[in-house]
Each structure stands twice: as C-alpha cells, then as structure tokens.
C-alpha cells in the first residue's frame, strides 16, 4: 500500500492500493502554520486533520473466507 494517489501507482502491475490524501490542502495548512509562527504567534502547535480515502486496487487481497 502507498500514500498519495500518484499516477504511477496505477501503472504498475498489480496496481497499488493507496491512501489518497488532499495534498494541496495539507500544503496550505502547513504554509499557514509556518506564516503564523514567522509572524510571532507562540501559541501551542495545532493539530490539523484531513480527510483521506482508501483506494482499493489489485495489490490488496480480499479478506480470507471463513
């Protein structure tokens, strides 16, 4: 399994299952936090959560029966 739904994960055999992440949103959150720190904000670090999605492909076997 891989993180980030990059194009090459569909080009290999078997296609890799991935956890798709909102990369642009993660970059924006990181930049906002960095700029806040540069501006002198000394509040505690913030935890940011983002939505992810599991993209099931051929590299993930079905669960065992029984």
Question: Would you spell out the secondary-structure blueprint of this structure?
Answer:
Layout: E1 2-3, H1 8-11, E2 18-20, H2 23-38, E3 53-55
Textual characterization of the structure:
It contains two helices and three strands. A three-stranded mixed sheet has the order 1-2-3, with no helix packed on it. α1 links the parallel β1 and β2.
Average pLDDT taken over every residue: 88
User: SSE string, helix = H, strand = E?
Assistant: EHEHE
Output the radius of gyration: 18 Å
Count of beta strands: 3
Unreliable stretches (pLDDT < 50, length at least 5) are none
Gross geometry: elongated
Structural class: alpha+beta
Helix content: 25-40%
Q: Determine the N-to-C terminus distance.
A: 24 Å
Please indicate the percent range of residues in DSSP E strands (runs of 2 or more).
5-15%
Number of domains: 1
Spatial ordering of strands, largest sheet: 1-2-3
Largest sheet: 3 strands, mixed
Separate helix tally:
2
Would you kindly provide a brief summary of this structure?
The chain has 66 residues and is an alpha+beta fold.
Features:
elongated; single chain; 3-stranded mixed beta sheet; alpha+beta; 66 residues; 3 strands; 2 helices
């Amino acid at each position: 399994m891989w993180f980030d739904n990059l194009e090459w994960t569909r080009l290999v055999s078997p296609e890799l299952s991935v956890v798709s992440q909102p990369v642009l949103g993660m970059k924006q959150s990181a930049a906002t936090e960095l700029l806040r720190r540069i501006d002198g904000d000394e509040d505690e670090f913030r935890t940011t959560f983002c939505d992810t999605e599991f993209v099931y492909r051929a590299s993930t076997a079905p669960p065992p029966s029984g």
